[in-house]
Amino acid sequence: MNAQPLRLDAIIRVSSLGQRTLKDLRSPDQQREVIERQARGLGAEVHFHGPEINLSGKTVLDRRDVQRVLERIRAGQTDGLIVAYLSRLTRAGVDEALATKAAVEEAGGRLRVCDLGGMDLDTAAGEMAFTMLAAVTRFQWREIKERFDQSRRNAIKAGKSMREPFGYRYADPTKRPSGRGVIDSRLVAVEELRPVVRGLFERKADGWSWTRLARWLDEVAPRESGLRWNRQTVIGITRSRTYLGDAHHGDFSQPEAHEALVSPSLWRRAQNEPGQRTPRGNYLLTGLVRCAGCGRTMRGANGRPGADRVLRIYKCVGDDCTARSSVSCELLEAEVARFLSDVEVETPDAPSEGEADLTAARELVERLGAEVERLAVVAPTHPRAVAVHAEALASKEQELVAAERDLDQIEARRAGGTSWDRVLEVWREFEAADDTERERLAAEADEAAWAEANEPGPDLAELRDHLRGAVDAVLIRRTNSRDVSKRALVLVRGEAPEVLRPGGRAPVTTWQWDDDASTLRRAT
Q: At what angle do helices 329-342 and 420-432 cross, to 10 degrees?
């Protein structure tokens, strides 16, 4: 009776680094040929796994291809593992190579390495040869990695990029004569995608979910491949420091390597956790409306459905607020428009700040930005220190956000712009639209369709920006009255305490007033 032939499982693997440096020698076809040649010499039957490309795992034994082979050995389906080259199994070092060999043997199999010439690894000479080969393999990998890292370091220092991220293109995408790389891989902003990138970060900062952001990109920036945007790609974009102007790859980074498409404050605000909030573009007073019961900003949301439409509201979301308020968006916006049309406010086309004010605002932003960056690199380990550091960093970031908003408003007022009368006119047009038209305009508030439909007036985002130049906050208190004028207090620029202005972090405090802003006070 003939003995059962030796059965071996073969792993074929190609790493991304290996493809670039040892392509010919370590290709899947070459590995298969080497394994089949040795298997014929052993009279063995081979079951191939792979090829696996850059398969990851904390160790070799964590990789799914190795785990599959170990399971087959334990089940008696194969007698061992064979690889063409030890480097295709591991380059982690001698300890891990020996641990892998031991794991195969403990499962009841044997390890065969073709570049050891069929040597029996169970013998003292075989184990020594295996150990030496593992050390040499590790040495070769370290040399390759160090050369590769130096090339990356030099490229990043020169402001070059390893890829073309969304919103940018290479300065000169012409392929090099060698066929590898391009002539100039420094990044240049794609003009038509500037507003899309900024819009993506703004919506992320406002709490849009990953899926909703992806669907929005499908509408405003369809992919050339025809594929839909996915959440993982959106996550990668919004978390990338490339959009701050940094060239980076791995541990290497070069600030100010190319033009930034978003400000540091917007980038930081976009690092919040995604939510399911209705987009800010649909709510004119987002960031300005505050609950008088606790001082927090109120959130735009959908309220009770009416007979023919959904009621849109601003509501307090503070769980510990004892006087949580909510108010109809339409009624409150109409009240704010009425109030502002009856008072004189500082308008965008009537600048009051001089050059000194502008310089001071810029210096404040620069100073606060430097302080935030210094805090950001600190990494305390003690739990109490971590909490204190996180609070200090959040507080300083809020200061920076407020300072950048003030600077933006000063620059806008000094540059002139749409008159406040025109802003109110566009606002009234928005309020006067019928329900169907209003929903359409709200849905398109930040899109080109709004601007095209209302030329030469500003879109809702511009209207909101101008509004922030005139209003510090709108407080809403809970009362039995349905009259919004008795529930709302509009605080024009300069009237609100610092903690109630845009970007201010108001402590949980109840605010009271009698008739006007001069009577505003904290509850005792």
A: 150
